[in-house]
Amino acid sequence: MSLSSDRETPLDGLRRRIDELDAELHKCLIERAQISVGIAAARLAGGATGVSFQPDHEAEVIRNVVERHEGSLPLTTVEHLWRELISASLTLQGEFTLHLDGSADLLGMLDLARFYFGFSSDLLPGADAADVVGSVAASECDLGLIALEDRAELPWWRGLSTDGAEVIARLPFLVLDDRPADMPALVISRAVAENVQRDTLVYDARWSGALPGDLMSEGLEVVSFHRSASGVDALLAVSADMSEDEIFAACAEAGAEPDVLRMIGGYSAPIDVEGDADEDFDTALAEG
């Protein structure tokens, strides 16, 4: 028998190194889970109850992942792994249900829910977006996932408020060509820390007449709108740097001030990883 058969080949060495890395990763995951349990215990000792959603911190985690990432491993694979870890950590703090918009494409909604909230989250389909808003508003710490349509059948966002259910995130967070789980959607919740930082605010805006013309050129994005005989309801996304007075002025410049303007939440701006509109993302990374 040849002695060379007992020697480790380069392929054997690579496989052994993968086994070593797997063991290290598993050890880190166990330690991470133990720390999450400790955080949950500390919150309970401090009088906090339920799950503490921190969408700004979660967004910063993913931003750091993007900044560190290199090599051939798909970025969305890494994003999903981190989202799974974040969701698993949240479930260690307590139980919560993710209410799904039943009026949206079911398969797309399930893909989105599992990609961002993992396979251990409890999912509950609602009748439509308004039903999801009502369920989350009546809960202590549940989340809602609502599909975004350019033209909504109903102005479901009228049921949102900063002291009830409000917008806390916009998906997908990483904007990539041909990515999985690419259904545009908003996440709503009523259990968000008071000091959460948002770079985009969301408003319920209503006009008794027609929607003003080019709001985008004034820095206002119409995320969704509903037209009826009495006028137009719009869901607006606006930079957190703009005051309400500035929003009214921008609407007036575009054609007409809204009759109603209510803030109904906000989110960390999604990252356009591949597109030409990466200037905001590059600036955010440069600033820290």
Automatic annotation (TrEMBL):
SMART domains: CM_2 (SM00830). SUPFAM superfamilies: Chorismate mutase II. Pfam families: CM_2. InterPro entries: Chorismate_II_sf (IPR036263), CM_dom_sf (IPR036979), CM_II_prokaryot (IPR002701). It comes from the Bacteria. One of its GO terms (molecular function) is chorismate mutase activity. Keywords: Isomerase. Its EC number is 5.4.99.5. Residues 5-97 form the Chorismate mutase domain. This is chorismate mutase. It comes from Roseibium algae.
